[in-house]
Amino acid sequence: MRGWNGFAGALGLCLLALCVVGFGSAAKAAQCGNTAAGFETWKRQFAAEAQQRGIGRRGIQALMATQYSYGTIKADRGQHSFKLSLDQFMQKRGAATIAAQGRSKKAQNAQLFAAIEQRYGVPAGPLIAIWGLETAFGGYMGNQNTLSAVATLAYDCRRPDFFEPHLMAALQLIDRGWLSPSQRGAMHGEVGHTQFLPANIVRYGVDGNGDGRVDLNNRADALASTANFLRGHGWRPGAGYQPGQPNYSAIQGWNAASVYQQTIAIVGRQIDGG
User: Fold this and answer.
1) Terminus of the chain with fewer CB atoms < 10 Å: N or C?
2) Which residue windows are transmembrane per the record (predicted)?
3) Domain of 256: which CATH number?
4) pLDDT tens across 6-47, in order?
5) Could you list the residue range(s) of the whole structural domain that residue 10 is in?
6) Residue 40 annotated in active site
7) Which of 40, 117, 134, 190 is catalytic?
8) Is 74 inside any structural domain?
9) For 116, phi and psi rounded to 5 degrees?
10) What is the pTM for the complete model shown?
């Protein structure tokens, strides 16, 4: 039997009309591993389960073409910056530079941010802070094959219950043509200007530039989707977003690390002029 987290994630995707058929009878659970040795066997097992959950030929072919990502595993085992103090973290991530450049980004894209705030209730500051912290305003969005990264982490025994729903979502997005099998992004499978994992594209991805599709490599789509994510995590228009204020909990939904949450709030306030 697969864990409840995996079931709930897949069920949520189905409720969003991305599953083509029902779950059907449960496939044999794919066996996780801590080395590359079992990855090919695991892919075949997961592919059988994915087919039962409605994944089509394009998604299955993309899954079978994935490769075990040693770089992703190394990055997953080496996340040390979140153990820094707040001052150390902000210095390491260039918070002062992000705030300064962020004020210029806000002025340069005033119409876009005004439209996003009108629709989602989220001001420019925290969105720009996230944009700067994640990719230096789109300057570097990663060069790791997204599907291989997510498949590797879904197979790895450390956190399969978290990443299996993201892999299933990625395969559904590939089936729909919203994600390319060759998409490249961050080491953990995040994509786009603000680094969305696949299941979050499904849940919160929106068309911000009006071209009829969701593309997180597009700035307007990514920023609107980020605002939609925060709204989906309880953002209240007009309320504050500093620690202890109503919207700080929405920022906490973005990243589990306290230093990251605080940095978003501080840099966002500096950009918004607070």
Assistant:
1) N
2) none
3) 1.10.530.10
4) 333 333 444 343 343 333 333 457 899 999 999 999 999 999
5) 4-65+143-185
6) no
7) 134
8) no
9) -65, -45
10) 0.85
